[in-house]
Backbone:
């Protein structure tokens, strides 16, 4: 069994059974969260004509929705910490559904911004965070695989929604389509119903009588990096955790900002997201700029989505192997750097065949990073602090995600060609990749040192205990 | 006496022709040209045919004297003379039969046509004997992409139907809108408050307010050029709000059923588990109590809510 960073959980996650139903429900929730805003772009042209607005005004709708989805992260985390995943996902599903139904009666573009943008975005945030969190509670050994499978929801749902949206648009126009989409998105509530809170009493961890050690060692274990193998110091650990849990119950766990691994992840991600989504947005326009016709350019996106779809579970499987799992941070660093290299080499691609090759490699890169994105965060902070961590990460990432495509667009407008944009995106991904490699090497070394320290102290404690206990035994 | 009358008549004719204030619309199948033919601009199109047939599209905006030239390289048996003639829209043009000589291994035919009105547009073909044919399709600029699927809108809602001429083509002097079979013209503004037409250079927009199901059908937009008007059409479908409501309700019902089923299943399973767990808990509690008697400070199985 590949030794992973410890969980600090008082139970053994099932790693199967109902867990697979939870993976399926997370698949649906994550799929809707990421694919829904992208699939709405089909309606933009007609809405633009109906309300007589410019293209940039209608594009704001996507941006507002994405911004709300990321900004709703902390709110979602607080609610999940308090109430668990299930109620939050169901409320989120109802919110998005209500937003779409209200939007179908919209009379101004502001009405659409408020309904779809704000309410819909928050509803999707209430779907995304809990889905990611609950996987961490059900899986430990097979967690990378579970994460990879759940993240596959995004391309699969996008693939399904795109032609479905076109069909709805042809049959009902944009108002009727929004109404029907409101009911389709209600299926997130079904996903929420499947997210049964994990049964913590079913398989408790094997209890070993905790040695009554001096307070110093216990406190070190409690306050040390939560991913250290502090193992069986249940009493003291429980005390420390109940203190932090009281905090977590009330607010969000801001002590994460003192967590080394979390900070590395956060800094790297902030830079990375400037160049993450822009190449996807500009793939088709770049192809058209090179003289390729519209249908072939759209086909490039389909190739990209198809490769993405298959590489995500594959990455999960690879991440689960005993060679990769202990050092999964390096795997993530490799994926990010590979993305960067891919973009830097893109301007060398000539003609349609070159672009197809680029689309395939980019699909591989994008899928790998997406599948590992939340797995590595879980690995760093542990499953029970993950909810707060992901909330903080999403709201901080809001900025780069929103600014990335417009900055790239500005680069294209200034220079008149796409290659500088690809160089910029490549640099935005390669630098964090290298940063991750270096920082995680340092982090792993530190973690190993801490682990050795704690194990050494435990051993001295145990020996002291044994010396104390032998006179007792002999008396009975 | 008759000569002076003829002179007077001719002068009056000239006066009428050059006077712009007089309305020269005359009923009748072939209206006389407004501008004397020798004042029309000239244009030329020529095609060299190597195979058996070829089609050439000619875009015409304004009245013009158009010279069409056909050159044919001939076939195996190079006859010294060949008869050639012109057809318009499939019908032979009278007095257009000519005998063409073979010069420099080619047959050459050139004729000038006066294109002054819409009837002069069409498909002109020069035919060499019965073997080679070159088609010249004379037409005003065509509207490029039109939406082939119908626009769907709702009763009591409004809709915007748009038509666009490609900006690489010449700008139409105006736009016209027709409904259904191409003869009912839609009047905007004072005539009807239900319609609003907005023309901006290469684009035109028809807004229809307060829709009813009778408004469904084909709408034609016409780009008006001096010679003729090119048409494009869009279909409008007006449906009631109950149409999308049916799939909406069906899916909501499906969701409610699934959620109820999942929750009920879970409740029935947890009841079974609870009874089994209670039995197990009793056993382990008695066992651990004996264990804990010996050691100090036990941590019991604390329920922890996360």
Residues:
């Amino acid at each position: 069994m590949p030794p992973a960073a410890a969980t600090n959980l008082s139970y053994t996650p099932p790693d199967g059974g109902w867990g697979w139903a939870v993976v399926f429900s997370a698949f649906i929730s994550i799929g809707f969260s990421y694919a829904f805003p992208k699939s709405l772009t089909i309606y933009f042209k007609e809405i633009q004509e109906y309300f007589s607005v410019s293209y940039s005004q209608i594009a704001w709708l996507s941006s507002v929705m994405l911004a709300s989805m990321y900004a709703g992260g902390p709110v979602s985390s607080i609610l999940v910490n308090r109430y668990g995943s299930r109620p939050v996902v169901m409320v989120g599903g109802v919110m998005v559904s209500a937003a779409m139904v209200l939007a179908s009666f919209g009379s101004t573009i502001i009405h659409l911004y408020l309904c779809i943008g704000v309410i819909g975005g928050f509803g999707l945030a209430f779907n995304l965070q809990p889905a990611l969190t609950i996987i961490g509670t059900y899986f430990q050994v097979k967690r990378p695989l579970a994460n990879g499978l759940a993240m596959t929801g995004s391309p699969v749902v996008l693939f399904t929604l795109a032609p479905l949206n076109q069909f709805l648009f042809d049959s009902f126009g944009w108002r009727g389509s929004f109404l029907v989409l409101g009911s389709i998105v209600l299926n997130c509530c079904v996903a929420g119903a499947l997210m049964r809170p994990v049964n913590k009493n079913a398989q408790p961890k094997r209890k070993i009588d905790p040695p009554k050690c001096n307070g110093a060692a216990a406190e070190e274990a409690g306050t040390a990096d939560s991913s250290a193998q502090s193992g069986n110091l249940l009493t003291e650990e429980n005390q420390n955790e109940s203190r932090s849990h009281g905090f977590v119950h009330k607010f969000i766990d801001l002590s994460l900002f003192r967590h080394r691994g979390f900070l590395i992840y956060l800094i790297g991600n902030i830079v990375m997201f400037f160049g993450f989504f822009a190449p996807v947005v500009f793939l088709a326009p770049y192809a058209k700029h090179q003289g390729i016709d519209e249908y072939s350019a759209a086909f490039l996106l389909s190739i990209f989505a198809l490769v993405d779809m298959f590489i995500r579970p594959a990455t999960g499987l690879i991440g689960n192997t005993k060679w990769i799992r202990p050092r999964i941070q390096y795997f993530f660093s490799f994926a990010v750097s590979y993305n960067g290299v891919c973009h830097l080499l893109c301007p060398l691609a000539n003609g349609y065949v070159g672009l197809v090759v680029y689309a395939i490699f980019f699909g591989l890169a994008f899928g790998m990073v997406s599948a590992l994105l939340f797995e590595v965060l879980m690995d760093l902070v542990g499953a029970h602090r993950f909810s707060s961590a992901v909330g903080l990460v999403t709201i901080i990432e809001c900025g780069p995600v929103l600014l990335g495509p417009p900055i790239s667009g500005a680069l294209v407008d200034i220079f008149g060609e796409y290659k500088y944009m690809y160089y910029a995106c490549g640099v935005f991904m390669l630098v964090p990749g290298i940063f991750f490699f270096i920082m995680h090497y340092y982090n792993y070394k530190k973690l190993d040192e801490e682990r050795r320290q704690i194990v050494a102290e435990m051993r001295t404690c145990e020996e002291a205990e044994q010396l104390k206990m032998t006179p007792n035994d002999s008396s009975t | 006496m008759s000569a002076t009358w003829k002179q007077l008549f001719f002068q009056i004719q000239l006066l009428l022709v050059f006077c712009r204030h007089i309305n020269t619309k005359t009923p009748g199948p072939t209206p006389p040209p407004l501008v004397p033919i020798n004042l029309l601009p000239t244009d030329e199109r020529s095609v060299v045919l190597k195979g058996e047939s070829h089609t050439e599209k000619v875009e015409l905006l304004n009245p013009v004297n158009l010279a069409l030239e056909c050159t044919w390289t001939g076939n195996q048996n190079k006859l010294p003379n060949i008869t050639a003639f012109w057809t318009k829209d499939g019908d032979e043009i009278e007095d257009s039969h000519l005998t063409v000589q073979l010069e420099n291994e080619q047959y050459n035919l050139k004729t000038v046509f006066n294109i002054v009105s819409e009837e002069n547009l069409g498909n002109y073909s020069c035919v060499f004997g019965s073997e080679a044919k070159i088609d010249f399709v004379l037409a005003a600029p065509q509207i490029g992409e039109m939406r082939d699927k119908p626009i769907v809108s709702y009763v009591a809602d409004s809709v915007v139907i748009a038509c666009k001429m490609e900006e690489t083509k010449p700008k139409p002097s105006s736009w016209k809108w027709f409904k259904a079979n191409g003869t009912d013209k839609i009047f905007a503004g004072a005539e009807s408050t239900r319609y609003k037409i907005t023309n901006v250079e290469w684009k035109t927009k028809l807004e229809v307010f307060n829709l009813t199901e009778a408004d469904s059908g084909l709408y034609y937009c016409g780009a008006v050029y001096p010679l003729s008007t090119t048409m494009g059409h869009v279909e409008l479908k007006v449906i009631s709000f109950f149409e999308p409501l049916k799939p909406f309700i069906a899916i909501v019902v499906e969701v409610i059923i699934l959620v109820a089923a999942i929750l009920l299943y879970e409740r029935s399973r947890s009841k079974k588990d609870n009874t089994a767990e209670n039995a197990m808990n009793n056993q382990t509690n008695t066992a651990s109590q004996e264990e804990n008697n010996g050691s100090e400070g036990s941590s019991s199985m604390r329920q922890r809510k996360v």
